[in-house]
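Pilot study result, target chain (284 residues):
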Amino acid sequence: MAISAPTSVRTHPAHGVAVRGVGRTFPARDRRGAPKPVLADVDLELVPGEIVALLGASGCGKSTLLRQVAGLDTPTTGEILIDGRPVTGVDARCAVAFQEPRLLPWRTLAQNVAIGLPRGTDRAAGARRVTELLELVGLGDCTGYRPRQVSGGMAQRASLARALARNPGVLVLDEPFGALDALTRLQMQDLLLDVHAAEPTTVLLVTHDVDEALYLADRVVLLGRADSAPRSAPAGVRSVVTVPGARPRDRADAELALLRARLLDGLGVPSHHEPVDPDQHHSI
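Predicted structure:
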């Protein structure tokens, strides 16, 4: 199913995010174990309306940092601020979309999206907002469908609409396209950019796909441990890459190929600077 470009629905303020000296250590699982430090001394600033992608090897703390920004987890050290105010718990200024759509199977797509509406939303206004969002993500003709009646990509679009229903100032995406087939994933990347243009917000995205990060993000943050650190050491910000050019970008752009090689090298994946194949994606 082709995804049509959405039209502007409604703008709302995007929030800035400040991650200051954040560390996270998980307690030992049993008496004989030792606490497990995952993150240490993470500093990061997101300006309002920016798209930032987090890259790093599996287990380096990307999703942990994402959960802390959304208030789903609490840092052991440091603090996270949204527009200068600290995150102290599940934060209404954020919305989260995960790798799996997590739709309620007994509800229609419209009813699933309505779950994301802020508490106290007027029923008529809420119904209009749900309709707008389903149109925005290309599901205007599927409002009465149940999750089992739609494809994985359509379900993920419904999940994105549900997150946007909160009118978030910060949209947190944890590998939202990781479970999709390659073609649908490319379509969803384009859809996310269209949605971001129509509903401006700050986006923090976790992905394992270097090409996806370079296509979507204004900046790519590489998380990981220092080269000389043991595997048990916590991760931090290794580097931050600013991606040139306005979105949407040419996936085959030579400048992106150079950045791809740089990021792969930073991830410990040897790069030989091959000619760019726009259909090939480099995941870690």
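One observation from the pilot: The chain has seven helices and ten strands. A full batch analysis is planned for the follow-on phase.
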